[in-house]
Amino acid sequence: MSLFMFGSMGMTPEHREKSSKGGSIPIRLRSRSSCSSSNTIHHFHQLCLEAEEMSRILVVEMEILIISLGMLYYFVSLQFAGLLGFLFGSLVILMNELLNE
Fold first, then answer.
1. Which of 7, 82, 83, 87 is the most buried (most CB within 10 A)?
2. What is the pLDDT of residue 40?
3. Domains contained in the chain, number
4. Membrane-spanning regions, if any (predicted)?
């Protein structure tokens, strides 16, 4: 449905004639008979509650991801530090053995 068709819905023949000559188009909002305002407000409220719940879930998932990445970084850095300590300790022991001979 084009924007022109949407704007011309509900117009009287005089309005259509005026709009075709370049006059202003009165815009009249019509509500659907099957959708009452209380039904719309209830639907909007439900959407807000669902969005709030989804944002809470997203925050929890982000916290879990950050904690997991932090733990992964911590363990990798500990393993790297342990490897460096092992290599340095082995080097010290090797140098000590060479100096004692």
1. 7
2. 87
3. 1
4. 72-95
